[in-house]
Write a structure and sequence with these properties.
Blueprint lengths: L9 H40 L10 H4 L6 H17 L2 H14 L3 H17 L9 E6 L6 E9 L2 H4 L9 E7 L7 E7 L4 E2 L4 H9 L16
Antiparallel strand pairs: 1-2, 1-5, 2-3, 3-4
Helix pairs in contact: 1-3
Length: 223
Amino acid sequence: MTPTEPKPKPRRRFAAIRASFLTGLVVILPIGLTAWLIWTVAGWVDGWVLPLVPHELRPEHYIGVNLRGIGVLIFLLFTLVVGWFAKGFFGRALLRLGEAIVNRMPVVRSVYSGIKQIAETVFSQGEEKFDRACIIEYPRPGVKAMAFVSARTKGEIARLADNPEDPLIAVFMPTTPNPTSGFLMFVPQSQITYLDMPIEDAAKLIISAGLVYPSEKEQPQTR
């Protein structure tokens, strides 16, 4: 009698099924979450924008179908037109008139000025902001933490530097896994280690709690 081959154990079969299932999750989960996020954001924007558009100008009035994302397109076109108009002479004059009226309203003035400063800081095109990732020592010497370089300090904060030749740099250290919250710190430039990795890779590293590392850059081969 020839010896028969041993049958695979059920445990091995279960491990193979589990590995295939996890591989499927790795493939499906990013695609599904991305599609869900885009779909949700588009619906949220549509819910804000479309009620402001007359019913006669909406696409569903002519085709009978509510197309998700039309509100996003209308918002982008409207923002583009407003930006183009604000750059002109009449746009700047109208903007100054509106700000003069807002500055006479006590509560509205504070809210408007705060939001305007934040928007100008985040969307400013004149200076580079949050353009580099860095490493600082936090919360004690010897422990490293990742942060984003914001900008060089100015005014009263800049004068607090111990050494004028070592200026204070504003850095934002985000929290994991929510990078929208974090700590603003003013660190001497000599104590900042700048990283070569892009901002996108640094954000992935923070959000994943250190699980997703960027790939190493290929070093040029020397002969």
